[in-house]
UniProtKB/TrEMBL annotation:
Gene3D superfamilies: 3.30.420.40, Exopolyphosphatase. Domain 2 (3.30.420.150). GO terms for molecular function: pyrophosphatase activity. Coiled coil: none annotated. This is Phosphatase, Ppx/GppA family. Pfam families: Ppx-GppA. InterPro entries: ATPase_NBD, GppA/Ppx_hydrolase, Ppx_GppA_N. Residues 23-301 form the Ppx/GppA phosphatase N-terminal domain.
Length: 307
C-alpha cells in the first residue's frame, strides 16, 4: 500500500502522521507523534516568531521528516497555521524548514484550516450522528468553528484569533490566575463568540486538537496517553465547568503533576478550558465528542486521498 505523511505545525505543537492508503481509499495510521514546541510564543504581542520558538520547532520538524522518510513515505505534506500566518518573519521559518528539513511548509488560511478539521471529523463521526455536525478546533493561536451536514458540505466556518497560547499571553500574569483575570478572559470570549450563528437543531459537536483531548485525559486520569480511549469520548458541559474551576484554581506546578496532563501544556490549559466552556455556552450545547484526530488527517485526505 502507498504510504504518506503529514506534519501539522501549530502555534503550540507539531504533529506527525504517517499512514498507509488502502485500495479502497481509507488511511490506516502507521505512526503518530506530537511534540510541544511553542512556535507561537510572543507572536500575539510582537507579531514575530521568536528564535527560540523557531529553533525548537525546526528541530522537531526535521526529526519528524526524517522519521517519515525512514518509514517509506512517498510524500510529505506540511502545513503551518495561526502563528506562521500572523508573524511578519514567517518566510524566515519557511526558508529554514526547506533548508534543514527538506520540506515545503504551506501556511494555510484560517478558512482552509477549518475545512481540513471538518473533513477529518466527517470521516470519523458522520456515520454515527443523526443530525448536522459541528466542529470546534481549539489551537494555540486560533479557534475554528465549522457547521456542516452528514454529506460533508460545510455551511458555515470561521477562524477566530482565540487560542490557548494567545489568551494566556494576553491576559494571565498571576499563578494561579486571579478572579479578575478569569473574568476578563470570560468577557473577551463571550464577546468573541457572540456573533456565532445558532447551530441547526439536533447538531452534534465534536472537538479536535490538544486542548479538548487534554481535558478528556485529565477528566478520566488517562496516563500514559491512549488514543484509543480518547477517540470518540464525550465531555459534558458540567465536566468542563468542573475542569475549568480546577485548572484555574491550581498553581502551575500542581497542574504539571495532574494525571493526564502533559507538563508542557500546563501553563496554557486553563485558558483552553475556558475557551471550550464559553464555546459550549455560546452554542447552547451540553456535550462535546472528542476527536484524537484533526487537521493532519484532513490534510492527508486532501493531498493524498485520490486512489
Amino acid at each position: 500500500m502507498p504510504r504518506f505523511a503529514t506534519i501539522d505545525v501549530g502555534t503550540n505543537s507539531v504533529l506527525l502522521l504517517v499512514a498507509d492508503r488502502t485500495p479502497e481509499g481509507r488511511f490506516v495510521p502507521v505512526l503518530e507523534r506530537a511534540e510541544i514546541t511553542r512556535l507561537g510564543r510572543g507572536v500575539d504581542q510582537n507579531r514575530r516568531l521568536s528564535q527560540e520558538g523557531m529553533e525548537a520547532t525546526l528541530e522537531v520538524l526535521t526529526a519528524f521528516a526524517q522519521e517519515a522518510r525512514a518509514l517509506g513515505a512517498e510524500g510529505i505534506a506540511v502545513s503551518a497555521t495561526s502563528a506562521a500566518r500572523d508573524a511578519q518573519n514567517g518566510q524566515e521559518f519557511l526558508d529554514a524548514a526547506q533548508q534543514r528539513a527538506g520540506v515545503s511548509v504551506e501556511i494555510i488560511s484560517g478558512q482552509m484550516e477549518a475545512q481540513l478539521s471538518f473533513s477529518s471529523v466527517h470521516m470519523d463521526f458522520a456515520q454515527e450522528t443523526a443530525g448536522p455536525l459541528l466542529v470546534i478546533d481549539i489551537g494555540g493561536g486560533s479557534t475554528e468553528f465549522i457547521y456542516g451536514n452528514k454529506a460533508g458540505k460545510v455551511d458555515f466556518r470561521v477562524s477566530l484569533d482565540v487560542g490557548s497560547v494567545r489568551i494566556t499571553e494576553r491576559f494571565i500574569q498571576k499563578d494561579p490566575l486571579s478572579s479578575r483575570e478569569r473574568e476578563a478572559i470570560t468577557s473577551f470570549l463571550q464577546t468573541s463568540f457572540s456573533t456565532l450563528p445558532a447551530p441547526p437543531p439536533a447538531s452534534s459537536l465534536v472537538g479536535v486538537a490538544g486542548t479538548v483531548t487534554t481535558l478528556f485525559t485529565v477528566q478520566h486520569r488517562i496516563e500514559p496517553y491512549d488514543a484509543l480511549r480518547v477517540q470518540g469520548g464525550t465531555l459534558l458541559r458540567s465536566e468542563v465547568e468542573g475542569l475549568a474551576d480546577q485548572l484555574c484554581g491550581l498553581p502551575l506546578e500542581a497542574r504539571r503533576a495532574l494525571p493526564g496532563l502533559q507538563p508542557k501544556r500546563a501553563d496554557v490549559i486553563p485558558a483552553g478550558a475556558l475557551i471550550l466552556l464559553e464555546a459550549l455556552r455560546a452554542l447552547k450545547i451540553d456535550r462535546c465528542r472528542v476527536s484524537d484526530r484533526g487537521l493532519r488527517w484532513g490534510l492527508l485526505a486532501h493531498r493524498f486521498g485520490a486512489v
